[in-house]
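Subject: sequence -> structure tokens, single chain

Hey, anyone have a minute? Need the predicted structure for the following. Not urgent.
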Amino acid sequence: MLNRNILVLGEPTLSERAALFNWGLRVGGALLMGVRVGLGRSVRHWSMLPVTIAGVLLAAGVALASVDPASAPDSHRQAALLVFLGGWFTCALFTAALWLAKPARLARWLAVPSWPATLTFAIFLWLPSLLEGSVFVAVTAWVLTFCWSTFSPFRL
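Reply:
Had a minute. Here:
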């Protein structure tokens, strides 16, 4: 049910606010691209280059998924695959980069919440019947944990 609801949000024939949702994806994709490049530049370690590239592909996929609705399945499927593959690689490579780079600005324990996000992406890619919402929840939890740890004055 949740998988269908997320897919329907951007479909103009099924949602009254599809245009707003799709513009949100475009703007969000552009912002996410900036965040991924900024994160890669802030750590300044070779291990962050693949993370940055995968993150930029993920962000591009988010923006492209809004261009063609699900009623154009071929192009939408390619954009969605870019999102899910980019997300999977971003999470997995970020986890590895935290252990390799040991950046002073980022706590190494941030690798812990990125594992469920990585596994959720992997499971979704191999078993597409899994709810798309589970990827959304895992990634949102990872991003919120990362932001709290990085920007909060009450860091662990």
